[in-house]
Amino acid sequence: MSTPSDDSPDPRPVTILTGSLGAGKTTTLNHLLANSGRDIAVLVNDMGSINVDAELVDVETTLEGGESRMAELSNGCICCGLQGELRNELFQLAERYSFDQLVIEASGISEPKPIASQLVGGGAVGERYDLASIVTVVDTPRFAATFGGMVPQRAGTDEDGRKPLADLAIEQLEFCTTIIANKQDLVDDETAERVEHLLASLQPKATIHRATTGAVDPEVVLERTFDAETVNTSAGWKQALDDAANHEHDHSHDGQDHKEDSTDQDHSHDHDDDDHGHDHDDHVHPPELYGVDSVTYRRRRPFHPERFDAWLESVPEAVVRAKGLVWIAGRETQALTVSIVGQRSSVSLTGQWIASLPEEIQEKYRRARPDLEWDDDHGDREIRLAVLGTDLSDSLLEDLDACLVTDQEWDDGLDVVDNPFPQIEAEQYTNGPEAPTPYH
Predict the structure, then answer these.
(1) Residue 360: HSE in the Cβ half-sphere, 13 Å Cα cutoff
(2) According to the model, what pLDDT value does residue 252 have?
(3) What are the pLDDT digits (tens) for 56-79?
(4) What pTM, to 2 d.p., does this model score?
(5) 192 Cβ contact partners less than 8 Å away, ≥ 6 residues apart
(6) Closest Cα partner for 140 from 106, 176, 191?
(7) Residue 113 or 234, more confident
(8) For 363, how many CA atoms within 13 A lie in the half-sphere containing its CB?
(9) Could you give the CA distance from residue 438 to residue 176 in angstroms, rounded to a whole number?
(10) Are 72 and 44 in contact (CB under 8 A)?
(11) Is the Cβ–Cβ distance between 63 and 33 less than 8 Å?
(12) Burial of 332 (0-12, 13-18, 19+ CB in 10 A)
């Protein structure tokens, strides 16, 4: 976002990027920002108090001079608890800046329909934006493992009033215009075909694109595909009801029979329609409805490489998703990002800690980021994790603390310890032309 907006600009097209926890939304968004050739504003939502995705996206959206093209909403869902904040951010973005398109990355436990309603309902926000597309990113191997070869069906609420996360995945797929079947490198061709067939059964009108690490043509995400009537009525189960109604119509023998059948069918459609049932759930936020807890873990001490690696090999089953920046002992230069989806985990190089740069460069970055938290001993090095799961145990934080380096280990040094985590080549430490960018 580079210049103030005109007094009466045309409505800005908006893409809602949704999908389950760990599906690859942020990776898809970063690929889009790097390859679209457009001036894109970004709003990132995370249910945790640490908006890790916003920090990772901010690397792609920060302009020279420190101006950022990104807004963030944390510690809640924009489909319910943060709707007021969402409206305010949307209004402020439209009033203050000029940009080609807005992309909203929703939290992994957000339902897309309430977000879309903010953009098509008129008013101060609706007049300034035009909903262009709703794109759902799917974790292909996890979807295959969850639903197997069965046509996905909702389980509904249990006796405690909770729904399984699989129901949310279906909700996100039924109300979308485009599906990105991500992580194709982790499945074989037969599984990819089977998942694509299941996805088409949920939303027959959506276009489906296969991807690895979220790499799709930017137009797949940005092109105008949203039509309210089509999206509202094209979910697979709704089409099945329509087909049944048409079948009854074709086989009715007289006008009276047709009228009765048609009325009964319409009644069933309204009763089962998700819009009708959803009204009763509006007062329940998705984190509560789907039984998802959020835990924040922050420490100014590094993980021991061997113990943290062992923890990653046996992530508790209650953890659905975890993501954040980690400081690993023996890797004092590089900021690493850990990503956990179920029992799968990965650690990748994000950039350099600012504290590892020459002092004059440190000062430059710190002046550009006056809000940057800085420790007198460790600078910006820290562990900052957001963990989402169901029925998370109190022992989770204790187990992570047990992975930290002890005072004695710190004093003795860890040079001889086996360290499997990524590192920056020595010649890149000076922040030269080929050096990794500081993650801030």
Answers:
(1) 2
(2) 45
(3) 454 444 433 334 455 655 444 444
(4) 0.61
(5) 140, 181, 184, 210
(6) 191
(7) 113
(8) 2
(9) 36
(10) yes
(11) no
(12) middle
